[in-house]
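Working notes for the structural subgroup meeting. M.R. asked for a predicted model of this chain before we commit to crystallization trials. I am recording the input and output together here so anyone reviewing the notebook later can reproduce the run.

Input as submitted:
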Amino acid sequence: MDEYRVELETLQELLYAEGKRKLLIVLQAMDTAGKDSTIRHVFQGVDPLGVKVASFKSPTAAELAHDYLWRVHHHVPGAGEIAIFNRSHYEDMLITRVNGWVDVAECKRRYRQINDFEKMLAETGTTILKFYLHISKDEQKARLEARRDTPEKQWKFLPSDLAVRAQWDDYMKAYEAALSANSTAHAPWHVIPANSKLARNLMISHLLIDALKKLKMRYPDPAKGVADTEIE
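Returned structure, recorded in token form:
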């Protein structure tokens, strides 16, 4: 991980310096799978100047007054930036589907709309990497129990976590449908086995570094005459 952090830091600086490409990282998972932990460990060494994190929780009244992608679009990365979505636009066809707030026809429309949205981002210079952090139901049970029993972590334990856990099978079906419908050449899904936190972090780091290297970035040319400038 230390080697990967050094490499990722160098590539992120190059991305920022070049100021042309954009990288969007989407993290989706069931509770306790480690979205926050992934961000903390994988991006430990990068310059926060060029990285931003957006977390999507229950939509506000203003967000509900617009289309479901409205709140997402202004968080996508600008030139030279990495944007990390901690949860994402996919919530709008996961929790909504599981709870019956949208029907099958609306889900299919959203699959198509999100593919079109991501294609537009890709065609305008954004590299998209989507990671589903997959843990087993038994592993989630162990992690929830650890939250419950550790005083410093009890603040993270919510009764709603158990309500969502009771819908595990429905969520697995919703994830399977979304990942199948929305893994494309321009925005692929990567299913990351996340029972092992270290293995999860190593896999994601490797995929990020590989994607950044493929961009074949270069530092911009220096200003004319900079090499001959005398500094007193």
